[in-house]
Amino acid sequence: MKLDCDDEGIKKTSQIIEKGGIVVFPTDTVYGIGCNPYNENSVKKIYEIKSRTELKSLPVLAYSLDVVKEIALIDEFTEKVIEKYWPGPLTLILKLTDQKLKKSLNLGNKIAVRIPDSKCTLKLLEKCRLLVGTSANISGNSSYTNPNECIKNIKNYDIFLNGGTITSKGESTIIEIENEKIKMIREGALKIKDITV
Predict the structure, then answer these.
(1) Tens of pLDDT, residues 97-112
(2) Is residue 153 within 8 Å of 140, Cβ to Cβ?
(3) How do beta strands 90-96 and 134-135 pair?
């Protein structure tokens, strides 16, 4: 089912997520695919749809910093980085404190999180609070910014939330902060030289 990114579309999509459905949605970087991160069966489906090895953990998208603080530890330095770059194309590897998420997402002691700078995704996250948020592509293939290409190549989801063509500078940049040192995991839309506090 294809829905527009309006109030009705967001409402229906959040209800489908609640029932364990899989959703493809626009973010500020690329089209993402997600589900309720606490639903183990839904998480397994995402791995199947993407042909992704379960050894590669899935990132989550959060509605707000308060929501992130409920699931992970954030020190003062990290919070300064967050205040500067969220919402936006920066994913942070944080120390996970939520044991339920640890189990459902099959994680160690860390989780990759970001708050996306997309009105559509944020409206959806306002209802869901947290979403698995990985790129909607087959593992190893390019990500999609064009909805029609995404629909053509990705199968077996429940809802496609159409946000039109996304104009972005690429996928999110992934960093980990240890002892106030920024470690680059994947360079994306944000360049390491541009990340300052």
Answers:
(1) 999 999 999 999 999 9
(2) no
(3) unpaired
Are 129 and 61 in contact, with CB atoms under 8 Å apart?
no
CB 38 within 8 A of CB 104: yes
| Confidence category of residue 113, pLDDT binned at 50, 70, 90 | very high
Q: Which two tokens stand for residue 2?
A: 């294809």
| 3 state DSSP class of 26 | strand
Question: What is the reported pTM?
Answer: 0.95
* pLDDT on residue 192: 79
Cβ pair 113, 92 in contact under 8 A: yes
* Average pLDDT estimate for 146-159: 96
Per the structure block, which two tokens stand in for 192? 């390491």
Residue 142 CB contacts under 8 Å (≥ 6 apart), including other chains: none
Token pair 């003062």: residue: 76
Cβ neighbours for 1, distance < 8 A, ≥ 6 positions apart: 158, 159, 160
Cβ atoms 46, 33 nearer than 8 A? yes
| DSSP reduced 3-state for 154 | coil
Question: Which has the closest alpha carbon to 25: 159, 172, 138?
Answer: 159
Does pLDDT of 42 surpass 90?
yes
